[in-house]
Amino acid sequence: MSTVTFPGLGLTLHLNRVAFSIGTFHVYWYGIIIALGFFFGVAFCCAQAKKFGLKPDDILDMIIFAAPGGIIGARLYYIFFNPDLYRNPDGSWSLAACLSTRNGGLAIYGGIIAGVFIAWLVARYKKIPFPALADVCAFGLLIGQIAGRWGNFMNVEAYGGPTDLPWRMGIEVGGEYMRSIPHFYMSPCGTWWASACWFGCCGKGFGPSTACTFCSM
């Protein structure tokens, strides 16, 4: 249980990472929020597909391969940049540690790289324009990012540096108080993501406009 306070706003929240448990198996809010973000992202992309000259089946065909491929890519990326976390005391690789994601260890950069590559392969196989597919899939990435930030909030992670601004956030984990810090994603980035979503939803042109906007952010 973590206590999150916003002293400048007069708010105090008590957050528990665990939504519910089945025996000794814990289901975390982070996973539930990410799953909902995935569902709404796919549904939104399917709804927007015709605007980009695609069919909803094109999106679903891509997701079948891109979703597991993205998870693998995210894991490999994290392991590559944090190898010491997945080695045995003798320096050899621990396969069990590499395969276990219950304690985190997924990097969105690796997921996006793998997902884009798989989407390109699917576009070539189905003979559909990759720029249009990338454009519509950027919607899903935006929705996933929004969901991910709220998942981070429930995990009490991914915050910014020290500040004394009115929206500063104080964190108490296990009875130990951390200095007041802002939740980096609650103010400026939330506005940028909302603007990008609005731009993508209102845009009527074809091509990689939305995908390029997402990458630039």
Structure description:
It is a single chain. This protein is α+β, with helices and mostly antiparallel strands and 217 residues long. It is 55% helix and 14% strand. The two termini are 33 Å apart. 26% of the residues are buried.
Q: Can I get a quick summary?
A:
The chain has 217 residues and is of the alpha+beta class.
Write the layout of secondary structure elements.
Blueprint lengths: L1 E5 L4 E5 L2 E5 L2 E4 H20 L7 H26 L13 H5 L8 H19 L3 H26 L13 E5 L2 E6 L6 H15 L6 H8 L1
Helix pairs in contact: 1-2, 1-5, 2-4, 5-6, 5-7
Report the average pLDDT across residues.
Answer: 81
Please state the overall shape, judged from the principal axes of the Cα atoms.
globular
Annotation field: number of helices: 7
- Give me the Rg, rounded: 20 Å
Percent range of helical residues: 40-55%
How many beta strands in the DSSP annotation? Answer: 6
Oligomer: single chain
Going by helix content, strand content and strand pairing, the class is alpha+beta
Give the strand order, joined by hyphens, for the main sheet. Answer: 2-1-5-6
Instruction: Detail the poorly predicted runs.
Output: 180-194
Throw out a few tags for this protein.
alpha+beta; 4-stranded antiparallel β-sheet; two-stranded antiparallel sheet
